[in-house]
């Protein structure tokens, strides 16, 4: 059987026509009919399935990746599916089974001259070490000092012996990697890839790969599937694979198994993380998947449940969300934190206050064109962010009302803020009224400056272009010096005006300066007739309309690299599965996970209520209705208990 099917390439190229030929147990595909072969899959070792929600799609899982195909009709899809399944069953022979057994025994059997790994030796050696470790942990828990001393001596000898044996196998792996590179060069010389093979052959870990199971009689060095040799060599030798032929990401995740069991379980078992490619880059330039720029939020179906109510108590569909949590959204206020650094350097207290006021307005620029809401954090959820400018930690401290608290600091300032708000819907708009305060300490002069954010409205819910407008007065006071300031944001009519005006007065009521500008472009301070531009908005990244209009700073907040994977607590927002699935444009699974997490949180609250217990924040302290940072988070992070004693909220 042969013919054209659509094949999913990636989010850049999406569905592309490919010509497929079913020959015995192999499915071969080409760019078009009559062109050279682009790829080949051995059906005898694949899993083949249909997708109920997409009746024209066929998914072929061949271990390290999946091939998604789509027929032009349901009838055509069924013909292909029947043919593939019949071929798979018909050509599963004893010889192939023997080859599979050989592959499990030695995954590099096809590399001429490569040494044979003693996989059972590796497995036995590691098992011996783990057994000794488990015995020692058990005796420590029983406080059996005599047996502990004896086991420590035994463990020293065992460790030395294990290291020697594993070192021998490691040297074999180095030799195998050299042979792999040689075979890769030969393969590339004989089969030069097409220009888009680079995109179609990207390594994407699957659940089988991530689990890396070892049984008594088997050792799965990559997974338990059989591959086309050429394809395997290319994958093993790609930049995304380690020298030894095993993904560096696997090593990172495996290191979490014992010291970080909660995080390990969630990463291994949750589909939201299955298709992620987690690299080593500290920053990123774009989201892993783009959203539809023409997508709009439809509120009509929710109107009857929204009018006159506090929207913090309404569960919105996941399509109303952007892939950031409120904890991360709080951190966005610090994008222009260098303004606070500058403020700390001035000797004039009124000038310091003026700069703090400009800083407060600068954070509003991140909301332009952002018409989707952040995820409401799970109670106990946290988010940390460390960069060259500051370090930041936040926590969801209350569920009803939902309150997130964030704290940041560097050598110049301390920043403490919460997002306690009331949210109401009144027909054509949603109004957000802040209840919490922002407190900023400038360290050099010990200034204590407090202010409350302005009101915000999400407008044109039913008709017209939707937009977010900020308006009203923001009042500032330096509790140390008595200086005060007011920023007035002008409300727009048909669209946001972005205009603001303000002033600063000293403790005697004498005006020191005025502030003017637009919070979507630039803001200036005028002192004695001299104008100084203090803030200019950063340029947005390319294709921002397909990335929720995130700023470059916002793009980093949900970025997850291997170092963070090792150090973050399991409560961090980056590890939240529904949010991660939405970022990867897996909308259906994001909706399922959002519902699951909301239900899990309700059950947790019910259990606390039945036990007549209250939830207490882990990292923030509440006194007289106000929150302060306990300064314990960064210290606790250095201890082994930091990971094991964390909440399993996801």
From TrEMBL:
Q: Which family, according to UniProt?
A: Belongs to the OSBP family.
Q: Which domain of life is it from?
A: Eukaryota
Q: Coiled-coil regions in this chain?
A: 163-190
Any single GO molecular-function term of the entry would be: sterol binding
Task: State the protein's name.
Answer: PH domain-containing protein
Q: Which Pfam families does this entry report, sorted A to Z?
A: Oxysterol_BP (PF01237), PH (PF00169)
Please name the source species. Paramecium pentaurelia
The residues covered by the PH domain are: 1-89
Keywords, comma-separated and alphabetical: Coiled coil
Task: Please provide the Gene Ontology terms (biological process) for this protein.
Answer: intermembrane lipid transfer
GO (cellular component) term, any one: membrane
Where does the UniProt annotation place the signal sequence? none
């Amino acid at each position: 059987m042969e013919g054209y099917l659509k094949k999913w390439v990636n989010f850049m190229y999406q569905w592309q026509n490919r010509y497929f030929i079913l020959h015995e147990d192999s499915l071969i595909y080409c760019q078009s009919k009559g062109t050279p072969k682009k790829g080949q899959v051995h059906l005898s070792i694949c899993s083949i399935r249909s997708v109920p929600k997409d009746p024209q799609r066929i998914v072929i899982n061949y271990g390290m990746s999946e091939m998604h195909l789509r027929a032009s009709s349901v009838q055509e899809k069924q013909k292909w599916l029947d043919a593939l399944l019949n071929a798979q069953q018909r050509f599963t022979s004893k010889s192939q089974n023997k080859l599979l057994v050989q592959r499990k025994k030695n995954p590099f059997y096809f590399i001429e001259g490569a040494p044979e790994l003693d996989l059972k030796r590796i497995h036995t050696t590691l098992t011996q070490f783990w057994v000794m470790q488990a015995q020692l942990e058990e005796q420590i828990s029983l406080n059996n000092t005599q047996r502990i001393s004896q086991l420590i001596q035994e463990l020293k000898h065992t460790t030395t012996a294990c290291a020697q044996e594993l070192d021998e196998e490691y040297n074999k792996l180095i030799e195998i990697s050299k042979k792999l590179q040689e075979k890769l060069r030969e393969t590339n010389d004989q089969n030069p890839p097409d220009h888009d093979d680079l995109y179609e052959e990207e390594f994407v870990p699957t659940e089988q790969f991530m689990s890396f199971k070892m049984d008594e009689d088997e050792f799965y060095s990559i997974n338990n599937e059989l591959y086309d040799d050429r394809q395997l060599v290319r994958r093993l030798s790609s930049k995304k694979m380690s020298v030894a032929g095993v993904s560096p990401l696997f090593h990172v995740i495996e290191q979490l198994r014992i010291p970080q069991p909660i995080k390990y379980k969630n990463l291994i078992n949750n589909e939201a993380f299955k298709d992620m490619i987690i690299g080593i880059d500290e920053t990123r330039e774009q989201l892993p998947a783009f959203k539809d720029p023409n997508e709009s939020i439809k509120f009509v179906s929710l109107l009857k449940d929204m009018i006159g109510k506090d929207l913090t108590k309404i569960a919105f569909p996941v399509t109303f969300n952007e892939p950031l949590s409120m904890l991360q959204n709080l951190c966005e206020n610090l994008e222009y934190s260098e303004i606070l650094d500058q403020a700390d350097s001035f000797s004039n207290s009124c000038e310091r206050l003026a700069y703090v006021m400009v800083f407060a307005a600068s954070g509003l620029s991140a909301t332009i064109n952002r018409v989707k809401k952040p995820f409401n954090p799970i109670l106990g959820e946290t988010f940390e962010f460390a960069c060259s400018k500051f370090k930041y930690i936040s926590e969801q401290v209350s569920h009803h009302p939902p309150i997130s608290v964030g704290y940041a600091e560097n050598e110049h300032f301390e920043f403490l803020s919460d997002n306690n708000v009331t949210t109401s819907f009144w027909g054509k708009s949603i109004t957000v009224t802040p209840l919490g305060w922002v407190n900023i300490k400038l360290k050099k002069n010990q200034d204590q400056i407090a202010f409350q954010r302005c009101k915000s409205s999400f407008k044109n819910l039913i008709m017209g272009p939707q937009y977010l407008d900020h308006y009203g007065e923001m009042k500032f006071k330096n509790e140390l010096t008595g200086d005060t300031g007011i920023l007035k944001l002008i409300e727009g009519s048909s669209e946001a005006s972005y205009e603001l005006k303000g002033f600063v007065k000293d403790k005697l009521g004498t005006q020191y300066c005025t502030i003017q500008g637009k919070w979507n472009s630039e803001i200036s301070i005028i002192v004695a007739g001299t104008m100084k531009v203090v803030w200019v908005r950063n340029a947005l990244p390319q294709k921002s309309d397909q990335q929720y209009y995130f700023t470059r700073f916002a793009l980093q907040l949900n970025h997850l690299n291997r170092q963070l994977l090792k150090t973050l607590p399991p409560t961090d927002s980056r590890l939240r599965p529904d949010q991660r699935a939405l970022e990867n444009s897996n909308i259906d699974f994001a909706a399922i996970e959002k519902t699951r997490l909301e239900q899990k949180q309700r059950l947790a609250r019910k259990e606390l209520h039945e036990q007549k217990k209250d939830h207490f924040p882990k990292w923030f302290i509440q006194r007289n209705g106000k929150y302060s940072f306990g300064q314990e988070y960064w210290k606790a992070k250095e201890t082994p208990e930091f990971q094991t004693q964390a909440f399993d909220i996801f």
